[in-house]
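TASK: fixed-backbone design
INPUT:
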C-alpha cells in the first residue's frame, strides 16, 4: 500500500511535477545557479505546506517534483517563488543580466502536472536524468 500523508482532518497524497522555463529559453543554468534556486525553493515552500521531492535542471529549465497539502495555495506559491528567485538570482549572479536584460528571469508560463498513477520512482528517474548534456550547451557565466 502507498504511504499517504495526513493532517488533523484528512488523508491525502498530492504529487506534482512542475517545469519552470527561463525567459526566452536562455541557457544560463549551471550547477551553482540551480543549487541556489533549489535553496530558495525550499525556504519558500515551507510557508505553503509544500515539500520538495526531486529537483533537477537543464540549461534552460528546471524540473521539480513536490508534494503538497490540500490547503496549499500552489499558484500563489509558484508566483512567490518565481518573483523571489528572479530577484535574488539576478542580484547574486549579475552576469546573468547579459542574457536576461529585463526584469524577468522566468518565463511567465509554467507547466504543472499531477502525477496521477505514475509510479513516483519512474518520475524521479525521469527528472534526475534531465539535462545530462547540459555542460556542453550552457553559456559561460
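OUTPUT:
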Amino acid at each position: 500500500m502507498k504511504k499517504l500523508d495526513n493532517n488533523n482532518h484528512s488523508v491525502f497524497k498530492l504529487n506534482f511535477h512542475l517545469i519552470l522555463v527561463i525567459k526566452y529559453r536562455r541557457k544560463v543554468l549551471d550547477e551553482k545557479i540551480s543549487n541556489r534556486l533549489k535553496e530558495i525553493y525550499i525556504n519558500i515552500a515551507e510557508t505553503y505546506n509544500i515539500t520538495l521531492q526531486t529537483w533537477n535542471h537543464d540549461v534552460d529549465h528546471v524540473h521539480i517534483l513536490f508534494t503538497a497539502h490540500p490547503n496549499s495555495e500552489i499558484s500563489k506559491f509558484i508566483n512567490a517563488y518565481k518573483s523571489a528567485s528572479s530577484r535574488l538570482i539576478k542580484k547574486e549572479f549579475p552576469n546573468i543580466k547579459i542574457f536576461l536584460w529585463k526584469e524577468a528571469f522566468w518565463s511567465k508560463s509554467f507547466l504543472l502536472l499531477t502525477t496521477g498513477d505514475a509510479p513516483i520512482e519512474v518520475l524521479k528517474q525521469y527528472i534526475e536524468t534531465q539535462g545530462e548534456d547540459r555542460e556542453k550547451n550552457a553559456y559561460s557565466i
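COMMENT: Residues 28 and 139 are 6 Å apart (CA to CA).
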